[in-house]
Amino acid sequence: MLTATVPAEPLSQDGFRGLFPALREWAWFDTPGSPPLADPVADELAEAIEQWRAGGFEWRVWDAAVEESRELFAELARVAPERVAALASVAEAAATVAASLPPGSIVVSDEEYRSVLYPFLALDPRRNPVIRVRSADGVVRASDLTAALRPDTVLVAVSDTLTSTGARVDWGELTAAAHAVGAEIFADLTQSFGVLRYDLEATPIDYVAVHGYKWLLCPRGAAWLVTRAGRDLSPLLPSWKSTAPPFGYFGGEFDLPHDASRLDTSPAWLSWLGSVPALRTMLRLPAADVEAHCLALARRFAAGAEAQGLRPLLPAQESHIVVVEVDQGPALARRLAAQHIKVTALGNRLRAGMHYFVTEADVDRALAAIPPGR
Ligand SMILES: Cc1ncc(COP(=O)(O)O)c(C=O)c1O
Q1: Per the confidence metrics, is the pTM higher than 0.90?
Q2: Of 27, 33, 64, 112, which alpha carbon lies 20 to 30 A from 132's?
Q3: Does the pLDDT value for residue 7 go beyond 70?
Q4: 44: nearest Cα among 222, 176, 255
């Protein structure tokens, strides 16, 4: 039941870990791909499926999960719910911003996650040319993006943390330089929000997108776009949600709200039902401890890997995501999976992400299972 009262007391690291049955066997470093399912989310979805099967469900109750989830996300982000739109993916969020841009260039890293690059490449290049920024070592920094700014630049689109490297963005440098030329910033925080802390009121990022299925433990299909106060974008996909409640089901008129909910897209109910207990769980975590714990584990993993002769991609570990170079990554990932150690490896890179449920013992178990490099 969505209205069930969740105990308000904070969750300890042990208590949090205990919510994931998969962790009884697995050391899980693949939250950058997807975390295991948490019990509160599983219970909510199981109850909904049962009610659906038995016929006792009420679709308006399911639909209300979108609003509840918006409020909870806003609480987690410490922004007003009126600034939060409910969408289904980062690609939708980026495409929503892309569709409302004035003419001018867009600066994006060539290494950027494709949901943050392609919506801008789909625009008319004569009106909105995309400047794809590269760097010699493959790690595009805020300084590389700012060097690419032009007087006509209208937007910089960037992810923090980039999943292929674990690199973080210098927000002070980027926001100052972009705003100095009149450009806005679209930030994708899917790979960090929930573990790393942000002060979105104090950091002048114009648009923040987060897909909840990674560090926020939600089912896939619940994503949010935080817009700058007072910025009236147009919905990408106007729908029954673009009318006043009860939402045009019986023929209402096109009537966009004046807050960010005007950008909402048609909701996949099960995703939103599951997002409510996921966000409630995240709200029970001690945010400062979570960040410190995950960063310390990442440093431990990177240092241990380096001591074994593997090369961390970055000279210093910056985030909760570690990327090291290995020989034959996919074969190594399979070997680790056989020992119930979950990582992602693509080509010669192995990626390990630290959520609050990971322990030092997990990190040491993974390091012991990775053969020394040359
Ligand atoms: C940085 C980043 N953004 C977004 C996504 C998901 O994109 P979308 O919401 O468009 O499916 C991922 C998935 O791996 C990601 O790593």
Answers
A1: yes
A2: 33
A3: no
A4: 222
Instruction: Report DSSP letters for 156-206, one per residue.
Output: EEEESS-TTT-PPP-HHHHHHHHHHTT-EEEEE-TTTBTTB---TTTS--S
Every domain range in the chain assigned CATH 3.40.640.10: 60-283
Residue whose entry in the numeric block shows the structure tokens 């105990």:
7
Element (H, E) at 272: helix 269-283
For residue 212, give the nearest of 227, 225, 200 by alpha carbon. 225
Q: Is 31 a pocket residue for ligand 1 (Cβ < 6 Å)?
A: no
Q: Calculate how far, in angstroms, residue 277's C-alpha sits from the geometric centre of ligand 1.
A: 21
Which 3 state secondary structure label does DSSP give 97? helix
Domain 13-30+286-369 annotated CATH 3.90.1170.40: no
Residues of the chain with CATH 3.90.1150.10: 13-30+286-369
CB 225 less than 6 A from any atom of ligand 1: no
- Mean pLDDT, to the nearest integer, of 306-315? 92
Question: CA–CA separation, 23 vs 13, rounded Å?
Answer: 13
pLDDT: which is higher, 327 or 366 = 366
- CATH 1.20.120.1200 is held by the domain 60-283: no
Does pLDDT of 257 surpass 60?
yes
